[in-house]
Amino acid sequence: MNTGGNTMNNLDEASAARLPGGRLAMLVNNVCDVIGTRRNLKEVSFMADFFRSVTASLITEEVLEVAARKIYEYFRYNLLVVTLATGAEERIMAFSPRDIENAPDDLAAILRNYVGLRAHDVKGYRILGLDNPEGSLVFGNTNYLELPMNLGSVTVYSEFNFINHFSDEMLQGMMETFAAALRNSLEYGKVKELSMRDGLTGLFNRRVLEEMLEIEGCKRQVAPISLLVVDLDNFKLVNDTYGHPAGDLVLQTVARVLRECTRGSDLVVRSGGEEFSALLASVSPLGALEVGERIRVKLAKNLVTYNGRQIRMSASIGVAHRSEKEHCTMKELVVRADQALYEAKRLGKNRVCVYSKASCLSEKSEQLSLKMKNSRIVRIK
User: Fold this and answer.
1) DSSP assignment of 116-154
2) Residue intervals in the chain for CATH 3.30.450
3) What is the rounded CA–CA span in Å between residue 4 and residue 260?
């Protein structure tokens, strides 16, 4: 029976070959089968490489860059835009090939080193110089793909149709892999952020300060930097008199005041207990003193209301500054700030005390205490 079946198939093929154009049709079918097989193998190879690459990192920016680079290796697009809708605002990352005329000859090496693509973290296309890429002759066809898990979308602008270039199975697998890698990186980012924050005040914790001081200490080019150590006066009395919930409210108020009195680029941390620190980069000694005095005055003016009772606050602040011309390690900077804080406490609290050498403070800084109303700035050597 099997032999008869094979004979019938052979007869059918032979009959088809005798028909007009039959041999050509068979040849076309065979070629299509070969092309389809090669395409499938190429897609399988790409998916394996894509999966291995995008899951190698837990940093969201790296996942985005690697995915954009890998897609570019397989399909030369003009612009790739990833829209993440995971927070209150959409985040848009756009990737475009580097200007080929100015790029080295070895494009593969460029792509391996991430310099073959430019990454733009933007809130809209206008920052890229694009009012509307859709239908643009420069960016070509618009190909829109959704990211699973409600993460957002991927839009590819290319001269050729991106979607038709891939099989449906590959597009789905690529987007699922991309979304899973992004979700893992975003979850990791949340966990890392929580490990760096103080749960009560929302400020960074002491570990972040230590890491930043270590980074500053390793820099070859020394830059001006100031460290402020803020310690609440008589905080134990607040807890004993009003209870720990009142103390927590005071600490949260102090954190808010510190944020209001510093720049967004400054690092503000809760060092522990009732002690806070602020690391100010690229600031003069006078500027650091002004920040310290601003914090002291604002804390003294703020009254915390708890159960109908008002709680007054004050703080002693130690300031240490390292200029770009001074050799001072970060450990020494911390010791100096602590010494200044100790002196502020010894002199009666509710004052700013700065550690400085004779050359550290200018005459203008010396006159600061005379210019500021109710100022309590003290200098120690």
Assistant:
1) TEEEEEESSGGGGT-S--TT-TTT-EEEEEEETTTTEEE
2) 28-194
3) 90
Angle at alpha carbon of residue 159, lines to 154 and 160, rounded to 5°: 80
How far apart, in whole angstroms, are the C-alpha atoms of residue 236 and residue 4? 99
pLDDT digits (tens, 9 = 90+) for 176-218: 999 999 999 988 888 887 888 898 999 999 988 888 888 887 7
Q: What is the pLDDT of residues 266-309, one digit of tens each?
A: 899 999 999 999 999 888 888 888 899 999 999 999 889 999 89
Active site residues: 274
- The arithmetic mean of pLDDT across residues 313-326, rounded, is 88
Q: Name the β-bridge partners of 305.
A: 310
Q: Does domain 204-380 match CATH 3.30.70.270?
A: yes
Structure tokens at 11: 């007869």
- Domain 28-194 = CATH 3.30.450: yes
Domain limits, CATH 3.30.70.270, in the chain? 204-380
What pTM value is reported for the model?
Answer: 0.59
| Sheet containing strand 204-205, strands side by side | 204-205, 267-272, 275-281, 225-232, 315-322, 352-355, 377-380
- Report pLDDT digits (tens) over 64-102: 888 888 888 887 777 788 888 876 667 777 777 753 233
Interacting residues of 284 by C-beta distance below 8 A, sequence separation 6+: 224
